[in-house]
Each structure stands twice: as C-alpha cells, then as structure tokens.
Amino acid sequence: MTGHTRLARAGIWTMAVLTLMLTVSGCQYSRSRWDDFADIGQLGIGVTAENPRFGYLPSALGVYAQVTDFIPIGYLTYEGYSAEWDGRGAFAGKESRDRSAVLLFDQYVKIDQNYEKGSENYFKKTGSLWEDRMASDAMDWLDFPAKDLSMSGEEFWGGGPAFPRGWQYWETIGAEVAVCEPFLLHHGFTVRAYVDPSEIFDFVLGLATLDFKKDDLTVEEFNQINSGDWDATTAATAKWEEEDEEEYDDDEGEDEDEDEA
Hints:
single chain; about 260 residues; five-stranded antiparallel β-barrel; 6 helices; globular
C-alpha cells in the first residue's frame, strides 16, 4: 500500500467520522464548533466625535496591551460607537471603555455597552441560561464567572487580574489603541485585537466532542437560542412579575385566613 493510498484512506475515515458526529449531534454540534472557533479571537473597531460632553477633544486616547490577564500594562479611554467580535459574543452600538494597568499591582476596568440601543447576540445577553450556568457555583472560581461577555458597566479596581471576560479567558493576548484627531477630522478612533491560544485547543478537542471547558451549549440553551426567547429584560421582568404575583396571592390568602379566624 503506497503512502498516498494510506493518506487517502485516512482522509476518508476522518470525513466519515466527522459526518457521523454531525449526523448524530445535528445542528447543536455545528453551533458549538462555531462558538469554539469564534472564542479564539476578539476584534473591534470604533469611532467617536467631538461633542458637548468632552468638548473639542474626542474621547479616544491611549494604548493598552496584555500578555494574559496577569501581565497587562497601559491606559486607554474611549466613548463612542463600536462594532466587535468578542469571542462567541458580538455587539454593535454605543460603548465606553476605560482600562488601565501596571502589571498586577494596579488594574482598573470598566466597560459599558449600551444593549438597549445597540445590537448584540445571545452570549452578550444578561440573564440567559448560558450566562447563568457560566456564573454558577459549579463553574465560577473565586467569584469570577467562567465566561462573561455581557459588558454592562461592571467596575474592577485593585491588585490582581480583573478577568473582565471571565477566568477561562485568562490567556488572552493582544492590545487596543485609541487616538483622537481634533484639528482636521474632529473624530477619534479605536481598534483592538486579541487572541486566546487555549481556545484553539478547545476548538480542536471539540471536533471530537470533547468539551473540557464545559462551555458548549446544553440542549436547553440551544433551544433557548432557537426559540428567540432570550431577551434578558423581558425574561427578568416576567420573572419579577411572576414572583410579585405569587407574593400577592400569598398575602391575600393570609388575610383571608385572619378574617375567618
């Protein structure tokens, strides 16, 4: 048997195994593999302009870089409109970013993305089943969620890694830059690019349905995405209304018992 024949047979067997896994797992498998692949990187761009709040200087200034969450350095501030691919998350809309760090000694992070007037995908939603599971006792570490791509203005200031996107993304390497040009363009710009090597390994293992990070969608989470019933505000409001109604019914029942007594 020649080397070419062996290689061809190995390729056929590989395709057969992948086809079988796709057939057995269905669209959920394909979706999980795409999510794992998307987790490898983070890219974002943004633009802002002079405005009454900041005057003639557009709010875009600084350079921030990190070699994992344990070795960050720099300062950056930005407020304007952004579009980003944030791992498996995606967002386009108004955003403010403030980041500063001197290695582990002093870190400050505050990222606020306006989801009410912007557009975001499932993994950016607060209150989704996936986000709740990533922050559960089974997944968190030192009160840091495993993964948290919802940036709603949470603030971290102190020594030690901030893990703004969750502790499983701690190996993220990259940088972001923000510059303003107040003289001719009267605009500011930002760009960021990051990569997480550990997510490459997670993606490769995922092809064989091995999920060592436990971040693949469960059946319930996958169904939640497909149903479209993952508006966090609507879900939270419905939950609060249901709880209030139950408390009201309980109070009414207690009043009736007291009246009868």
